[in-house]
C-alpha cells in the first residue's frame, strides 16, 4: 500500500518509518530503471519549484538534486548564503515563511542542524536535509539502497564504519542501519563517539528491527565477518585547522587492502570526496570490491524518489 508522504520533511532517517524508507527505495528503483531505458523525464513534479540553499560547497549534493528536479519536470533554484538576506541578519523564521510563499520545497545544506529544524518549523513546505553538522540522511538512504541492490536484503548483514565516530556520517549510518535492521559497528578512536541523542534514537529503532549497534576501538576485531566497510574523511568542512592532529589520531583506522582481507569479503563504501592516502588508500578505492561510484550515482535516484514523494 502506498504511503502518503506529501508535505513531509526529511531531516533524519529516524523520523521516517520503515514503510516510508521502503517506499523511497521502491520509487528510486522504478525511477532508476526508467533512466536506464532512456526515459530521462518523468514529469511528476511539473510546475514545482525547489529552493536549494547551500552554506557549504558541494559536488554530488548540488548536481544530484539539480538534475533530479529537472528530470522530474520541476525547477531547481540554487541559493548560496550570499544570495539570501540571511547573510544580512534576516531570521530563519522569516526566511522560511517567505520561501514557503514562493516554492514547493526546500533543500538545505547547512553548518548547523538547528537551521534545518527551524526551516521546517516556521515554513509550510517540506524541508529536505542535504547535509548538516549532525546528519546526512540522503547520503545514507542512497547507501542503504545500494547495499540492498548488492545483497538483496539487510537481514544478517553487518556494516563497519571506520574513522571519525562523531561526524554526521557516523550518526546517520547508525540511524539508517537501525531503521532497516542491519548490524552496525562504529570503529573509532576513544572519545570520538556518535551524538548521544542520535545514539539513543538508533537503539530504539534497533529494538524494533533486531539490529545491533555497537562501538569498537579495534579495527581488526571490528571488521571480522563484515559485509560492508565504510569510510569518510577524517576532517570535515570547518575542521581544517584540526587536520594534522586528526590524521595522526585516525591513522590506525585507515582502510587498507589488508583490512579488507581480514573482513572476509566485504565491499567498500565511501560517501566521497575521498582523501586518498588518509582514510583509505588507492588500492581499496579502485579495487573491484569498491562500489563508491555506484553509491554516488544512487544519490540521484534516491533523491529523485524523496522529492517525488514529499513534493
Q: What's the short story on this structure?
A:
The protein has 311 residues and is α/β, with parallel strands linked by helices. It contains twelve helices and nine strands.
State the strand order across the main sheet.
Answer: 7-6-5-8-9
* Overall tally of domains: 2
Pattern of helices and strands: HEHEHEHEHEHEHEHEHHEHH
CATH T-level fold name of the largest domain: Rossmann fold
By secondary-structure content and strand pairing, the structural class works out as alpha/beta
The rounded distance between the terminal residues' Cα atoms is 19 Å
Percentage beta strand:
5-15%
The Rg value, from CA coordinates, equals 19 Å
Largest sheet: 5 strands, parallel
Considering the protein shown, what is the CATH homologous superfamily of the largest domain? Aspartate/ornithine carbamoyltransferase
Indicate the CATH architecture of the largest domain: 3-Layer(aba) Sandwich
Helical proportion, percent range: 40-55%
For the record, the CATH class of the largest domain is Alpha Beta
* Structure summary, number of beta strands: 9
Q: What's the number of helices? A: 12
Mean pLDDT: 96
Point out poorly predicted stretches. Answer: none
Bulk shape: globular
Give short descriptive properties of this protein.
single chain, 311 residues, 2 domains, 4-stranded parallel β-sheet, 12 helices
Walk me through this protein's architecture.
- With 311 residues, the protein is of the alpha/beta class.
- The chain has helices at residues 18-36, 60-71, 92-102, 113-122, 137-151, 168-180, 196-209, 219-222, 243-250, 257-263, 282-285, 292-310, and strands at 49-54, 75-80, 105-109, 127-131, 158-162, 183-187, 213-216, 228-231, 267-270.
- The protein folds into two domains: 18-135 and 296-310, Aspartate/ornithine carbamoyltransferase (Rossmann fold, 3-Layer(aba) Sandwich), CATH 3.40.50; 139-293, Aspartate/ornithine carbamoyltransferase (Rossmann fold), CATH 3.40.50.1370.
- The strands form two sheets. It has a five-stranded parallel β-sheet. Strands 2-1-3-4 form a four-stranded parallel β-sheet, with helices on both faces.
- It is globular.
- The chain starts with 17 loop residues before the first helix and ends with a helix.
Amino acid at each position: 500500500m502506498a504511503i502518503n508522504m506529501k508535505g513531509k520533511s526529511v531531516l533524519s532517517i529516524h523520523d521516517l518509518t520503515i514503510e516510508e524508507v521502503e517506499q523511497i527505495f521502491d520509487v528510486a528503483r522504478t525511477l532508476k530503471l526508467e533512466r536506464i531505458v532512456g526515459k530521462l523525464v518523468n514529469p511528476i513534479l511539473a510546475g514545482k519549484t525547489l529552493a536549494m540553499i547551500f552554506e557549504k560547497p558541494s559536488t554530488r549534493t548540488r548536481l544530484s538534486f539539480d538534475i533530479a528536479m529537472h528530470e522530474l519536470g520541476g525547477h531547481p533554484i540554487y541559493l548560496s548564503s550570499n544570495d539570501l538576506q540571511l547573510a544580512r541578519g534576516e531570521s530563519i523564521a522569516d526566511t522560511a515563511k517567505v520561501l514557503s510563499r514562493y516554492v514547493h520545497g526546500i533543500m538545505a545544506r547547512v553548518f548547523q542542524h538547528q537551521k534545518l529544524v527551524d526551516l521546517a518549523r516556521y515554513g509550510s513546505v517540506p524541508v529536505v536535509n542535504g547535509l548538516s553538522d549532525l546528519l546526512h540522511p540522503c547520503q545514507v538512504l542512497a547507501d542503504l539502497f545500494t547495499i540492498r541492490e548488492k545483497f538483496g536484503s539487510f537481514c544478517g548483514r553487518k556494516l563497519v564504519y571506520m574513522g571519525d565516530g562523531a561526524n554526521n556520517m557516523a550518526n546517520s549510518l547508525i540511524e539508517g542501519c537501525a531503521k532497516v535492521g542491519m548490524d552496525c559497528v562504529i570503529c573509532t578512536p576513544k572519545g570520538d563517539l556518535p551524538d548521544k541523542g542520535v545514539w539513543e534514537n538508533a537503539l530504539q529503532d534497533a529494538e524494533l528491527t533486531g539490529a545491533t549497534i555497537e562501538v569498537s576501538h579495534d579495527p581488526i576485531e571490528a571488521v571480522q565477518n563484515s559485509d560492508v566497510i565504510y569510510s569518510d574523511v577524517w576532517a570535515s568542512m570547518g575542521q581544517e585547522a584540526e587536520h594534522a592532529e586528526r590524521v595522526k589520531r585516525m591513522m590506525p583506522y585507515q582502510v587498507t587492502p589488508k583490512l579488507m582481507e581480514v573482513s572476509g569479503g566485504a565491499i567498500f563504501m565511501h560517501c566521497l570526496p575521498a582523501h586518498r592516502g588518509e582514510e583509505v588508500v588507492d588500492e581499496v578505492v579502485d579495487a573491484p570490491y569498491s562500489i563508491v561510484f555506484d553509491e554516488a550515482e544512487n544519490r540521484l535516484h534516491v533523491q529523485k524518489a524523496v522529492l517525488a514523494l514529499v513534493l
